[in-house]
């Protein structure tokens, strides 16, 4: 095709088609991780289990999961491993998770009690068609315990709003009580035992298992409205869980698309939205465990060799950034309002809520220049607080030089978020250039 712009548009459309499919099939962190693993296996990656002894050789492509909700993938170079190009994201999103004993029978309705997972915007959850998804552990007839993924994609619940006639202050910033006002309506005339019965029916329908005794579960509600292109020219993408499945998708696309000449790592941690303090979160030992074992398997056992490897490496933490909102422009610093479809955003915070420093930012600017990708910067207003990412946590736990970047979006932590359809392609190109880059820091012999 002679027109480069037209070729880019076709390429971007194919990327967004794959992204929409991934988002639609990933209503929970466990589903997202399973789908990432399937894509890796289709690309020739071999699964490692943490309980096995690892045998690795240069050129291997491998991945490992923990808790079925976090994943690390590695492309090892054919040459000796000198440095790692790492991209990190997270698989979890704010949500409403079921309580262990969720059934609430109230005024002729069976409702399900929920816990708020992460810093969710609560108002958008009202009046949405809700499905149910997550992980269930069952006991089979032969006594075996088995973990199963469940995705009830049809609308099975709703949280109805109270009519404005009964609450004249509803548009005046009324606070919402998650305990008393946000239990989804599930079944008219239902009883507590109906929850177990329906779960068993869904397990049978999805997995063909009819002897399942429910032992425990981790389930949450999700919006069943599918992802969609929005706008006259399709310049926007609206979907649940863009924060941060968008970065998971982008990081994996870049890893699979890289040339394999360098040591490349993709990390997708769970539990970022609740602080990352878990065995599979960024504050836990998962990444360090995997990298130490890889280093040892390639003949570089010992703390000194590991520290040298980490200090030659770089982590790009990918988590979405706040795009300039046309209705709330005053919420941004006037010189740091990233535009949707304006390219990836470098996120900076002097108090280390982001891990970016001038050295890591300079490298990312250079990557974007090489990939012919526009780049933006974000800093919060000086009179506002700042969120954080896995970047500072990974830098603290591992000691690796780190930068925080992300695709700009609106509506972060809403049940339905909005991003641009050009930005995923931009960041994929920049991260692919990163994975292929021969030298990370000229001061180090890598």
TrEMBL record:
Keywords: Aminopeptidase, Hydrolase, Metal-binding, Metalloprotease, Protease, Zinc. The keyword Membrane does not apply. This is M18 family aminopeptidase. It comes from the Bacteria. Signal peptide: none annotated. Its EC number is 3.4.11.-. InterPro entries: Peptidase_M18, Peptidase_M18_dom2. It comes from Salinicola endophyticus. Gene3D superfamilies: Aminopeptidase i, Domain 2 (2.30.250.10), Zn peptidases (3.40.630.10). Its cofactor is Zn(2+). Belongs to the peptidase M18 family. Pfam families: Peptidase_M18 (PF02127). One of its GO terms (molecular function) is aminopeptidase activity. It is an enzyme of class 3 (hydrolase).
């Amino acid at each position: 095709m002679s027109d480069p712009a037209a070729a880019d548009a076709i390429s971007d459309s194919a990327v967004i088609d794959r992204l929409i499919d991934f988002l639609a099939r990933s209503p929970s962190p466990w589903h997202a991780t399973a789908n990432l693993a399937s894509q890796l296996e289709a690309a020739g990656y071999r699964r490692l289990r943490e309980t096995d002894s690892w045998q690795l050789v240069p050129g291997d492509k491998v991945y490992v999961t923990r808790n079925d909700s976090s994943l690390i993938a590695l492309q090892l170079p054919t040459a000796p491993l000198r440095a790692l190009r790492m991209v990190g994201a997270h698989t979890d999103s704010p949500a409403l998770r079921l309580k262990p004993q969720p059934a609430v029978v109230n005024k002729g309705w069976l409702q399900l009690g929920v816990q708020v997972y992460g810093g969710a915007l609560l108002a958008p959850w009202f009046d949405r068609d809700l499905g149910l998804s997550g992980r269930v552990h069952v006991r089979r007839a032969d006594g075996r315990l088995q973990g199963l993924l469940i995705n009830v994609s049809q609308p099975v619940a709703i949280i109805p709003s109270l009519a404005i006639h009964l609450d004249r202050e509803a548009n005046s910033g009324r606070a919402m009580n998650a305990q008393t006002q946000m239990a989804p309506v599930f079944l008219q005339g239902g009883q507590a035992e109906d929850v177990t019965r329906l779960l068993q029916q869904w397990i049978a329908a999805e997995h063909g298992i009819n002897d399942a005794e429910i032992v425990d579960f981790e389930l949450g509600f999700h919006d069943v409205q599918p992802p969609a292109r929005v706008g006259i020219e399709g310049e926007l993408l609206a979907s649940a869980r863009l924060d941060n499945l968008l970065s998971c998708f982008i990081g994996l696309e870049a890893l699979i698309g890289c040339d394999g000449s360098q040591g490349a790592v993709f990390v997708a941690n769970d539990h970022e939205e609740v602080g990352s303090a878990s065995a599979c979160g960024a504050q836990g030992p998962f990444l360090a465990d995997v990298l130490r074992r890889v280093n040892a398997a390639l003949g570089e056992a010992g703390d000194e060799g590991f520290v040298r490897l980490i200090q030659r490496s770089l982590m790009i933490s990918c988590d979405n950034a706040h795009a300039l909102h046309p209705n709330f422009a005053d919420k941004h610093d006037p010189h740091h309002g990233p535009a949707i479809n304006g390219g990836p955003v470098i996120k900076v915070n002097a108090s280390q809520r982001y891990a970016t420093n001038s050295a890591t930012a300079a490298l990312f600017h250079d990557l974007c220049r090489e990939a012919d990708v526009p780049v933006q910067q974000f800093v919060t207003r000086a009179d506002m607080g700042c969120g954080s990412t896995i970047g500072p946590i990974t830098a603290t736990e591992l000691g690796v030089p780190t930068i925080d970047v992300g695709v700009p979006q609106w509506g972060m932590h809403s049940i339905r978020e909005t991003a641009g359809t050009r930005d995923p392609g931009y960041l994929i190109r920049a991260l692919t250039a990163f994975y292929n880059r021969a030298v990370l820091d000229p001061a180090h012999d890598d």
